[in-house]
Structure formats: C-alpha cells, structure tokens
Amino acid sequence: MGLWQRFTLIFKSKASKALDRAEDPRETLDYSYEKQLELLQKVRRGVADVATSRKRIELQLQGLSQKESTLEEQARAALSQGREDLAREALTRRSGLHQQIADLQGQLAQLQEQEEKLTAAASQLQTKVESFRTRKETIKASYSAAEATTKINEAFAGISTELGDVGMAVQRAEDKTAEMQARAGAIDELMATGALEDPMGMGKDSITAELEQMASQAEVESTLAAMKNEIGSSEKKPELEQ
C-alpha cells in the first residue's frame, strides 16, 4: 500500500468516526421520513395529473359522440329530403369522427390503467410511510431512553469516583486523628509518671523535683498546724473571760 493510499485510508477512518460521533439517529430518521413524504407527494401529484388527462379525454369523447350523433341525424334528414350528396358528406364526416373516437378511447384506456397503477402505488407507499413513521418514533423513543440512561449511569460513575476519593480522604483524616490522639495520650502518661520532664522545670532532674514536692508538702502541713493553733486559741479566750 502506497503512502497516499495509507493517508487516504486513515483520513476516511477518522472522518467516519467523526461522523458517527456527530450523527444523531433521530435526525437521520426524521430526514428519511421527510424524503418519503416528498416522494409520496410526487406520486399523488402524478395520480392527479393522470386523472386530469383522463377527465379531459372523457370530455373530448363526450363532445365527439354528441357531434357523431348530430351528423348521423343530419345525414338521415338530408337523405329524406332527397339530398343524397349532403347525406354522404355528413356520413363521411361522421366516419372521420369515429376514428378519432376510437383513438381517444385507446388513450383513455391507457390512462385509466396508468391511473389505477399509480393509485395502487400511492396507497402502498402511504402504508409504508405510515409504518416507517411508527417505527421511527419507536426507535427515537428507545434511543432517547438509552441516551438518558447512559447519562445517568455516567453521572453515577462520576459521583462514585468522587465519593471514593472523599472516602479515602476521610479515612486518612481519621487515621491521622487517631494517631494524634494516641500520641497525646502517651505524652499524658509520661508526664504523669514523671518519665517525661516538665518543660517548665527549666532542666531540673527528677530528684530535685521530688525534693521540691516534699518541701511544698511540709510547708502545707506547717501552715495547716498554725491555722489549727489560731483557731484553738480563739476558742479558749471566751472561756477565760467568764
């Protein structure tokens, strides 16, 4: 395969795909239906034209038949009056009309046959057009339903993907929260047991901290004893005054 043939094939394949994406089956069906209606209208006009021609010939035949009868009556009248020459002339003219009538009757028969065929064709075509219209609407409804379903499914697929991402983000947040809570709990336990030095202790070791705690407790006990003595002294003074 030559380079130009390959290029043509690639171009045609891409153009075909582009047309498939751009084509809406509903529009194509409507267009086909319109073309069938136009064809049906042309057939009906053809039937009307043939019927008009038939009617025109029928009128011509009617006029010629009347003229033929008139010539026959004139020939009889001339013969009764002894004018054989006039009678012969009238019959000669009548003979010419008879040939015209025969030709027109042949044309009339052909037109009647053609009109019947066209009428039958128009009836069959109308039946097919109506059947196509019903099928067209059914296909359009099915396509619209499938299109709506596809869009809904695509929307759900998009939502599912987003929800999956959100779920992963929530899971990561929960994991980080649990990790932070565990670290906070561990630090609290270390602070309670003294395993972790108080940052406000300015570098004091555990012994210094314990000594300060004992001193603080001794101060509390001394203050408490002094308060008890004061209360006891205040209770004894009224007794001495009595």
| CATH T-level fold name of the domain at 17-167 | Helix Hairpins
How far apart lie the N and C ends?
137 Å
Helix content: over 70%
What structural class do you assign from the helix and strand content? Answer: mainly alpha
Low-confidence stretches: none
Strand tally, please?
Answer: 0
String of helices and strands = HHHH
Major sheet, described briefly? none
Estimated radius of gyration: 59 Å
Query: What is the overall shape?
Result: rod-shaped
What is the number of helical segments per DSSP (H or I, 4+ residues)? 4
Class of the domain at 17-167, according to the CATH hierarchy?
Mainly Alpha
What's the mean pLDDT score? 77
Strand content: under 5%
CATH architecture of the domain at 17-167: Orthogonal Bundle
In short:
By secondary structure, the chain is mostly helical.
Features:
242 residues; mainly alpha; Helix Hairpins; 4 helices
What is the secondary structure topology, with strand pairs?
Elements lengths: L2 H20 L2 H56 L3 H110 L12 H36 L1
Helix pairs in contact: 2-3
